[in-house]
Amino acid sequence: MHRQIAGKLTGPITKWIVLVGVLLIAGGLGSLAGKLIDVQNNENSSWLPDSAESTKAIDKLGKFQDEYDAGTAVVFYRSSGLTKADFQAIDDQAAEIAKIDPDHVTNVVTPTQAPQYVSKDGQVAQMTFNVNYGDKLWEELPDLKKDIDGITSLDSGGKVYLAGLGGQYADASTVFSSFDSKLLLVTLAMVILILLFSYRSPILWILPIFSAVISLGASMGLLYLLAKNTSLTVNGQTQFIVTVLVIGAGTDYALLLIARYREELRRHEDRHEAMAFALHRAAPAILASAATVAIGLLCLLFADLNSTAGLGPANAVAVVVTVLVMVTLLPALLVILGRWVFWPFVPHFGTEEPTSSGLWAKVGNSVSGKPRIVWIGTAVVLAALCTGFFRLDTGGIPSNEQYTTDQDSVLGQELMVDHDLVDNSAPIQVVANADKADEVAAAIKAADIKGVKEPVVVAEKDGIALVNADITVDPYSKTALDAVLDVRKAVHAVDGADALTTGASAVTEDILDASSRDNKVIIPIVLFAVFLILMLLLRSVLSPLLLIGTVILSFGAALGLSGFVFDFIYGHEHTDPGFPLWAFVFLVALGIDYNIFLMTRVREETVNHGTRKGSLIALSSTGGVITSAGLVLAATFAALATMPLTFTLQLGTTIALGVLLDTMIVRSVLVTALNLDIGGKIWWPSKLDTGEHDVPEPGTEPEREKVPAL
After folding, report:
1. Are 669 and 548 in the same domain?
2. Do 363 and 436 fall within a single domain?
3. Is the dihedral of CA 267, 269, 273, 278 positive or negative?
4. Residue 406: how many CB atoms within 10 A of its CB?
5. pLDDT tens figures, 58-107
6. Within a domain: residue 318?
7. How far apart, in whole angstroms, are the C-alpha atoms of residue 672 and residue 547?
């Protein structure tokens, strides 16, 4: 940021204008944040690209059923066998359910009416009905579940679970809505503890937290406007990621700015001048970091999956809002309140900066002894961790593993599968030309596909027929997904049928295909985009190449280490197909941040001290703040592990591990060792380092930069 611009933002009068202006704008946007849930789209079918077979089939399926229909089942279980009294109770409860909301809860069918709803051993029975609240389904189902839970029961040890698609949606919606505020509170609590430890001040932590919360509210409000008025797709997962990203990244930017401001307060008697100089020096790294994250996230626009494509711009918008707040509101607050906010460790004018002889100065001196051995050894260790990647199965998470706590929909589904009951809410559905419907059904039957019941032509309209084939396995299991492929192979072989397959299992299979494609396409795009940003920032080719290499190695190590954690600690056998891509984008975009923070300071110090000495000065100056920033970001993403979702637990764990590897090992040891080993050549083809400066002797303290007052 230009020195004059920085000065105008933090002047004696302009600081008040900035404060009021930012609070008014952010407050207006923040007032809309609570409405974001109203524009979320959490149905899997909405995530698919137009080219997916399920999407094409769903368009035709509208002739026969409403897209918002959610088949729902109440599963009744008694280990000693259901009694006549149980079946009478089920009939009575069905009558009550039918009266709950006759306009939206319809077609209630009991085991008495449908004997096939009772398992052969007599232990399990199901009652089914259809739920349709239109586009408000996600919001209404949790309340409906409470009503149904209050009606359904069995005496003396019998158990009842709400299952089917309606039950799954109800559980998912309840999890997302109940953990929205909890996630924010857990995230803030973890960050506050780290800030208290880092600053050892009872006051200073309030400013970055306040600024981050303002950023979050403004981001959520702006996302609501974009989702409502544009084609931006936002779902529950997007909202959670935005929450932790804004708090984590915002606090990181605050840490970097406050650290530089504290340095400048020791060099400038006027706090306004100190902040102007701090912004002038720190803003380029902060803005470059934010740009890297935002552009890396925007690369997700190339994704086929709408949910992934929507994740990119949504989080990019949040990052842009956050960085704008952090370079305007936070500086204004700091200069308005003055030096006392650092109490009891107030940085007085003319005092020495303690980082010149701190922990990271000692680490740098240790690395400088034999830098080549250090970076080779570090790379070997990280490469060894990468081997855990082969323990990851990204073929999708079956329904019985999607949650880390017991959910009714999962328990009910398991009972139906274990007792050979058909889940009518999730059949494999085929739409085909009506004159070929019988041939399509015959082809499915002839294929004798595991887990697939005999197909039935259930309806015909406008020359199109619907063929349903119930399945006897978990709709999201590998068996069900394999069945979809077999059904498609069979029906595609029927000439002139133009058969298209959809249903919950088919949608999941298409999501797997789209995720596989996205992983192959987007990862190279993100790497290239980040490389270009680093080239522009560092004005070098070799340095960005090395940094990209270290981040890739760090990502592989984080993924490998996660593989061991998932297997031996969590006991998870599967991961979501989108997990590697999400982890990659966040770890590369966020991991490169710390290298940007370090290398921009190295470049700054190289001008006066040379690359090797400048690297040690940069490490000693930024080591503490970057470590704190890494701990903050790791803690915010680790907060995702508090949600009872396997996907968020795995994603939070991997990003937290990756960030810690980046801050503790890659940035402080690997990158510093490479800088010291390669020296001025690291800026190739730039001639930034002329080689005039001597290599510092191992064990000597790096000389602090003397910055003239402006």
Report:
1. yes
2. no
3. positive
4. 9
5. 888 888 888 888 999 999 999 999 999 999 999 999 999 999 999 999 99
6. yes
7. 11
Listed residues 502, 537, 569: the one ending a domain: 502
Residue 668 CA to residue 550 CA, distance in Å, equals: 12
What is the residue type of 148? Answer: I
**Closest residue by Cα to residue 211 from 157, 165, 257:** 257
Range of the domain at 121: 68-172
**Using only C-alpha atoms, what is the Rg of the chain?**
29
Q: How many domains does the chain have?
A: 4
Q: Work out the angle between the directed axes of helices 271-298 and 504-538 (0-180°, nearest 10).
A: 140
Question: Does a structural domain hold residue 231?
Answer: yes
5-44 confidence digits (pLDDT tens) = 666 677 788 889 989 999 999 999 999 988 887 777 666 5
Question: Distance between CA atoms of 330 and 279, rounded to whole angstroms?
Answer: 11
Calpha distance 293→587 (Å, rounded): 10
Nearest to 45 by CA among 66, 28, 24, 19: 66
CATH code of the domain covering residue 551: 1.20.1640.10
Cα-to-chain-centroid distance, residue 600? 28
CA nearest neighbour of 93 among 126, 117, 121, 54? 126
Per-state percent for the chain, helix, strand, coil, to nearest 5: 70, 5, 25
Average pLDDT on 502-507 reads: 91
pLDDT at 692 over 70: no
484, 512 contact by CB (below 8 A): no
Answer yes or no: do 553 and 672 share one domain. Answer: yes
3-state secondary structure string across 338-386? CHHHHCCCCCCCCCCCHHHHCHHHHHHHHHHHCHHHHHHHHHHHHHHHH
* DSSP secondary structure letters along 185-247: HHHHHHHHHHHHHHH--TTTTHHHHHHHHHHHHHHHHHHHHHHHHSS----HHHHHHHHHHHH
Indicate the DSSP class of residue 336.
H
Q: How far apart are CA 220 and CA 243, in angstroms?
A: 9
Q: Do 367 and 496 share a domain, yes or no? A: no
C-alpha dihedral (556, 562, 563, 569), degrees to nearest 10 = 160
Q: How high does pLDDT run on average in the chain?
A: 87
Same domain, 151 and 116: yes
Structure confidence at residue 572 (pLDDT): 87
User: Residue 29 to residues 26, 176, 222, 332, 651: CA-CA distances in angstroms?
Assistant: 5, 22, 6, 20, 29
